[in-house]
Amino acid sequence: xxxxxxxxxxxxxxxxxxxxxxxxxxxxxxxxxxxxxxxxxxxxxxxxxxxxxxxxxxxxxxxxxxxxxxxxxxxxxxxxxxxxxxxxxxxxxxxxxxxxxxxxxxxxxxxxxxxxxxxxxxxxxxxxxxxxxxxxxxxxxxxxxxxxxxxxxxxxxxxxxxxxxxxxxxxxxxxxxxxxxxxxxxxxxxxxxxxxxxxxxxxxxxxxxxxxxxxxxxxxxxxxxxxxxxxxxxxxxxxxxxxxxxxxxxxxxxxxxxxxxxxxxxxxxx
Length: 270
What we know:
The protein has helices at 3-24, 43-55, 156-170, 205-222, 228-254; strands spanning 59-60, 64-70, 76-82, 100-107, 114-116, 137-139, 147-154, 186-192, 195-200, 268-269. By secondary structure, it is of the alpha+beta class. It has a domain at 62-111 and 143-269. The model is unreliable at 7-11, 17-23, 127-133 and 264-270 (pLDDT under 50). The strands form three sheets. Strands 7-4-3-2-8-9 form a six-stranded antiparallel β-sheet, with helices on both faces. Strands 1-10 form a two-stranded antiparallel ribbon. The protein contains five helices and ten strands. Helix 3 runs parallel beside helix 5 (228-254) and helix 4 (205-222) packs antiparallel against helix 5.
């Protein structure tokens, strides 16, 4: 091997090692989900994953979604994604705006279920507050493909307004001072443009407004075509109000509006 070739190989190995080190050791902390000290046998984490897998699925993450996990009733998701066309679907002209779909997805039975050790299953609507291991009740949590799905098509303009509300609120995500949580209530999770945030039983402010918007979109997806006009108008009005208030909060906190992205920001999840 000549000297020039040997130097080239050594340089390539050194550069590869250097690049790997830069990517493996970023000069900043990155967020992770908080651990729960009372999560025995990883039950809470497995439940969250089972809900996500059942309702959102695996593959490409949708542009926007909301998951609601009530304590005593079925979980559900509202998903907003650009329409995907199958091989036999007629495609719109290239110069036309994209179409979007809103999906409402819910399991036929609640995913958080209980079973009695050595006995029959406990009612799927049993409250988590009943889970006392001394009483021989154990979680029976697993993903399901037995779901109901309702869908409605919406315009690109409508989806853009909803996107603005979702994104501007998620850009304000940060840890709360009190970390309020309770036993019986509802947890809501939101995602947009690879930003994630959650809230518990919101009553006021932007979290409550965004939860209201997500629920309205779920109602829209389940509605009859003749009822959709007013529902669309109400949802769009609320989305614009959320964006306005969220941007005002951004200016208050940061002195400016944060950047707005509108496109095909999706990533694969498994």
